[in-house]
Amino acid sequence: MSASNAAGFEAIETDLQGDVRVVCYVRSSVPAAVSERLTALVERLRTLEETGTLADVQVSQWPAEHAIGETDQPTREELVAEFEDWATQYGYSLEPGFCRQHTTPSPLGISEPCESIRVPLVALALYDADTDATDVQGVVPCTNPDKPVGERTYTVDEWLTAVETHASVASTHAENEQRTMLEGSR
């Protein structure tokens, strides 16, 4: 992946040049108005894939919180733990998009205390498309707590806008270079 970055995403690439695979996780049941926004967001991802900015886009529902039978797919807990490892490594936080919630046992003693994970309506996991590696290279949404002015949370929409802007600028630059080379050969 390129070292240059747009829009201040220090650890999350926006200068992608087709070397990033994106898995878009969405909640399975959402209100109609939210569903329309998610559909538009997925269309933006597909457009970036079609133009070669993204190597591959997969859309998946969030996995079950706990394993149900035999499966080779990660549980929500395993997936979020992988995202948290990435965030820790790069100095980011996944809150407020992701949140671990502790539940107390019922007053009747029917249930045990446990922890659940609240996930955002939509999140992107970025992977290097040039290798078969499954190591996360970025997660959106995320929060950079070390900003001098205070915390800064990056949303999926902001990341997409930054990538689209960078791709548009790069495309315009490439067209101008090609035009200049053709004009120079006359």
Q: Features of this protein?
A:
alpha+beta; 3 helices
Task: Summarize the structure in words.
The chain has 186 residues and is of the alpha+beta class. The protein has one domain (20-184). It contains three helices and eight strands, in the order βαβαββββββα. Strands 2-1-5-6 form a four-stranded mixed sheet. Strand 7 (142-144) and strand 8 (152-154) form a beta hairpin. Helix 1 (32-50) runs parallel beside helix 3 (156-184). The longest helix is centred in the C-terminal third of the chain and has 29 residues, at 156-184. The protein starts with 19 loop residues before the first strand and ends with a helix. Mean pLDDT is 81; it is low at 1-8. This is HTH domain-containing protein. It comes from Haloarchaeobius amylolyticus.
Q: Number of folding domains? A: 1
Biggest sheet overview? 4 strands, mixed
Structural class: alpha+beta
Give me the Rg, rounded.
20 Å
Q: Flag low-confidence runs.
A: 1-8
- How far apart, in Å, are the first and last alpha carbons? 36 Å
What global shape is seen?
globular
Number of helices: 3
Order of strands in the sheet with the most strands?
A: 2-1-5-6
Q: How many distinct beta strands?
A: 8
What is the H-and-E element order?
Answer: EHEHEEEEEEH
Percentage of helical residues?
Answer: 25-40%
User: Hey, roughly how much beta strand do the residues contain?
Assistant: 15-25%
Q: What is the overall pLDDT average? A: 81
